[in-house]
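Appendix C reproduces, verbatim, an entry submitted by the partner laboratory led by Prof. M.T., so that reviewers can inspect both the input and the predicted structure.
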Amino acid sequence: MKSARVVFKGAVPFSPEFDDIYFNADYPIGQSEYVFNSVFDEIWDKKSEFNLLETGFGAGLNFLCAFKRFKNSDKFLNFVSIEKTPIARDDLAKIYANFSELADVSGELLDAYPPLVRGFHRLNLAPNVTLTLCFGDVDTVLDELSFIADAVFMDGFAPAKNEAMWSERVCAKIANLCAFGSSVCTYSASGALKRALQNSGFEVNLLKGYGKKREMLRAKFVGERKAESEIWFSRFDPAATIAPRTALVIGGGVAGCVCAFKLRQRGLDVTIAEKRSDIALNGSGNHCGILMPLITKPTVNLGRMHMNAFLQAARFYGQNLGAQEIEFCGATDYAYEQKTLERFYEWRKFDADNGVFELKFEDEPYASAFIFCGAKARPRKMCKAASAGIKTLLNCEFTGFETLGGGAVRAHFKDGRIIDADVLVLAIGSESMELFADYDIRLSSVRGQVTHIKPAVWTPVPFSAKGYVCPPTQGVQVIGATYDRNLFLDEPRSSDDEKNLADVAEFLDGKFAKNERLNLDGQDLNLTTDPDGAAETLNYDINLSKNTDLRAKTAGDSAQAQDANLTAPENSSNIAAKIPQNIRIIGSKVGYRSYSGDRFALIGRLYDEDFYKDSYKSLLWTKGKPNPHPKYVPNIYVSTAHGSRGLCTAVLGAELICDLIFDRPLCVEKSLFDELHLARFLIRKLKKGLK
């Protein structure tokens, strides 16, 4: 999206578009404190955590003043700010250069400032301060928010310059996000704004204005919030009766380890329980992987969710992990098929200068998108780093749970062990199918095999086409990955290695192959074990006689063959024609990932299946009629079905679970939260009148 055009009149930024200054020219910090941040003096002792909504981020001075106030306190601030035309980072830096008193916080904001992409951007700027920047039109963004605000800052350009920002429609939407008694603070004393607030359920008072301004408005919400639409996806459920102190995370993959990390950051005593002999031995155990978003057409919800997840993940890993775990070298997504190319063209029309990726239509062998913050990741090392210092129980197989009085949860394990916790997070990946067998949740497990070869593709960055290739690491180049739904076979297959190589054959030949650079890392390539101890060690040249017909493997179990959706591998002669004969395979790794039926992850509270089926059974015939609030299983949260881009969505899952546990604003739009909701498949059935 386009950044705001900012003209400087001395030290004061001015908007030619709105013919107005961004803040008071005399003493802007004083105005921010007097008009807006003084509200914290009134509510400081009432709560330990505050949710604040701002319409008009502008230059961000109101947030920076609030950040400075909270930074060294024991209180938590969740600040949500809307901006239709955000200021570019370089212009913000020029503005902040004039405010030395804010240097300690403005630098942190500039370091974390997101690319100018429409949507929500969650910035965790301190252990107790989150900023959610919402880039978009205020009227649209307000519909996408889901939280209860303790206070609201209305700080757009003057009503006479930007009438839509102050309309009664906007005031009504603000009212629906306010708790009873919440304050609206603004420098404006407009009569039209006063009437709009009064008509929206606010009690309005005129107060002395700041500096040369004679009056300003202060309002309190005394009305009633309107009922939610699609109430079955409501996040609000007073299930917990105690403030959480302990958390138990089931699963030691990326989703579980990142969630455990974030819960510990919030001060909880966290335990990870993993059924295997070590963490990250399943889908999160690959030697290398790629951090990159799924690029869909710009307005498709799946792509919007992945864009949010990718940007959150890049920030999280960049702040908390080192170069041994992840290398932000960029990544390339090749348009190897027509639908991908069409998506790139849509992005060129929609927002070519999005700040996340650069489109290159003249690239070879296909048009491409170069992702600036893409990365070569070491998933197993990432799990180790994220879980460091967290109590981890290995060989501890989860079998079920029960809820206790007061909202606590008791988890049961195969060895007879029992663990009680205030919060239970289920991040069990491919094992989710068995756990949720009695729920109307469409889940499948997918077997994926990656292939390790001696370095054969000289690429400084990881890339994805029909298959993906990572730059060599410790003498190993990872190529992947196969995709076999509901196939359970732990042993690697040579036919899968051959398919992986065939999928990237165009990069193994000609100008994309640099086989003379075998000692790329200056290390011995004659490996007998994987550096992480996670791979099956092979060490053979391509031999097509090893090719195995999958149909023969499953012929004795027709049901399995049908469920697995298996097809015979490509004809051996066709594969042989694609693969150079000097490629040397040195290992393989099999892992399992969980996928949902609509490709969205499953993130959020575990819903009460019986309540949903009973309370919402007539949705087909009761459209427009009120329905009861949903019921969730107290303090049970789920983060699963992350599929092949779990490095991105696992961070989104962890952040969203924290939002729900601590009643924070959501880090994604409400429409995307609904797409991730565990009950979505059941609700779709009920809307069709199906049982």
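The longest helix spans residues 301-320. Additional entries are available on request from the coordinating office.
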